[in-house]
TrEMBL record:
Family in the record: Belongs to the Glu/Leu/Phe/Val dehydrogenases family.
Glutamate/phenylalanine/leucine/valine/L-tryptophan dehydrogenase C-terminal domain location: 206-446
Protein name stated in the entry: Glutamate dehydrogenase
Pfam families xrefs: ELFV_dehydrog (PF00208), ELFV_dehydrog_N (PF02812)
Domain of life assignment: Bacteria
Gene Ontology molecular functions: glutamate dehydrogenase (NADP+) activity
Length: 448
């Protein structure tokens, strides 16, 4: 009889051949399949009906041309993507990323992760992801608007409140969602508020959605620390990035008594031994759209570093909140040597497999992104609930719901790891708990 290890490596080898040149997708699948070996040993029926092969193949992949004209009248042609990965639990749900590094493999990795993350939230949402290789940096408002309108002119045919509900991600914030929604409304001649999340508060948006991913990652971290008899109160925290997720992770960590000792962007990192002035950073990044080096010019006690790495700082907790594979094995070893005991991923797959292995071996408590950063999509699902009921909830109520969802996700990961004799391994816990719910739904719904 084929062992579960052989079965899984057979699936993986076929996937490598069928999806050549997509290293990030391979990495995301490898991590989940590795966790599934122990599931298949205990419950071999999860290999029936081609379940795992179907799970690793997107239901639909849409690739399209996005032409637009810049302010100096040049024509630009970008590529747009929407990967509708799995809708067994509900409409496809997942963000749009605008960044020059975007390609099909990156969108597939993000869409694949999204299936398990959305399942972990306990809410009825399937997994999808999209975006474009468009670079918004340095573009005028009018250029961003024209790009968004062109992107939506194709995307609108494939999305809808009951079909696929995109949101933001890297390079797509409130401004972009506004332009995308405007064009959707114009093309469809209806105000279908449930078609996108992350909307403005006066036209169907939800309070707490902006803060949700960062706040949620911090709620998860605090819950994980409490299980080990500690908390964020008095802790030193490194947060990479300075975008949506990073800023609100910093805000909540400091509200809970931590000191954020550093943050970054792609131009370098800032050391802030006395903590971060969040209002100043928000103004620099959100309003003025400037680089992090500007922060040190307008405050005291902070230093900007164009070289080296933010992971060389001393801290108790690290929250990588920028992008995939930003924290490698060497960085992980630095963190361990400098006393970091907890790592929670605000970004999607920011730690390489080598880094995760070092955390595991060194006893660092590690929370994978699909669990720790699920607060964003969970609050998007709460936005969909408010849209469906033509209601809007208070900040306090929505934040309480988010907090409860993050505690539940932590408990689910913790319990599942225990059930499979891997106590404290939140990677195993998240992958298996996320998988089983989707897998049961797929088995119930037949071979489709
Ligand atoms: P933003 O665009 O708001 O911010 C991204 C931040 O990461 C910026 O500081 C950016 O710096 C930095 N960054 C991006 N790419 C790189 C790179 N290649 N090297 C170094 N730094 C980089 O995005 P978000 O905060 O929304 O997303 C951050 C991460 O969190 C992503 O992995 C995303 O998938 C994930 N995530 C986001 C959710 C959300 O609700 N927004 C939900 C769940 C996960 P610079 O400005 O210099 O590019």
């Amino acid at each position: 009889m084929t062992s579960s290890k052989e079965l899984v490596s057979g699936y993986y080898n076929k996937l490598l051949k069928r999806n050549a040149g997509e290293p990030e997708f391979h990495q995301a699948v490898a991590e989940v399949l590795d966790s599934l070996k122990i599931v298949l040993e205990k419950d071999p029926h999860y290999a029936d009906y081609g379940l795992i092969q179907r799970l690793c193949e997107p239901e639909r992949q849409i690739i399209f041309r996005v032409p637009w004209i810049s302010d100096n009248n040049n024509v630009h042609v970008n590529r747009g993507f929407r990967v509708q990965f799995n809708s067994a639990l509900g409409p496809y749900k997942g963000g749009l990323r605008f960044h020059p590094s975007v390609n099909l493999g990156i969108i597939k990795f993000l869409g694949f992760e999204q299936i398990f993350k959305n399942s972990l939230t306990g809410l009825p949402i399937g997994g999808g992801k999209g975006g474009s290789d468009f670079d918004p940096k340095g573009r005028s408002d009018a250029e961003i608007m024209r790009f968004c309108q062109s992107f939506m002119t194709e995307l609108y045919r494939h999305i809808g409140e009951y079909r696929d509900v995109p949101a933001g991600d890297i390079g797509v914030g409130g401004r972009e969602i506004g332009y995308l929604f405007g064009q959707y409304r114009r093309l469809t001649v209806q105000h279908e508020s449930g078609v996108l999340t992350g909307k403005g508060l006066t036209w169907g948006g939800s309070l707490v959605r902006t803060e949700a991913t960062g706040y949620g990652a911090v709620y998860f971290t605090n819950e994980m620390m409490r299980t080990h008899g500690e908390s964020l109160d008095g802790a030193k925290v490194i947060v990479s990035g300075s975008g949506n997720v990073a800023i609100y992770a910093m805000e909540k960590a400091q509200e809970l008594g931590a000191t954020v000792v550093g943050f970054s962007d792609s131009s370098g990192w800032v050391s802030t031994p006395n903590g971060v002035d969040i209002q100043l950073l928000k103004d620099i990044k959100d309003n003025r759209r400037e680089r992090v080096s500007q922060y040190v010019k307008e405050t005291t006690g902070a230093t900007f570093n164009a070289d080296g790495t933010i992971w060389s700082l001393e801290a108790d907790v690290a929250l990588p909140c920028a992008t995939q594979n930003e924290l490698n094995g060497e960085h992980a070893q630095m963190l361990v040597d400098n006393g970091v005991k907890y790592v929670a991923e605000g970004a999607n797959m920011p730690s390489t497999p080598e880094a995760i292995e070092i955390f595991r071996k060194s006893g660092v408590h590690f929370a994978p992104g699909k669990a720790a950063n699920a607060g964003g999509v969970a609050t998007s699902a709460l936005e969909m609930q408010q849209n469906a009921s033509r209601d809007s909830w208070s900040f306090e109520y929505t934040d309480q719901r988010l907090h409860k969802i993050m505690s539940n996700i932590f408990q689910r990961c913790d319990q599942t790891a225990k059930e499979y004799d891997r106590e404290g391994d939140y990677v195993i816990g998240a992958n298996i708990a996320g998988f089983k719910k989707v897998a049961d739904a797929m088995l119930a719904q037949g071979v489709i």
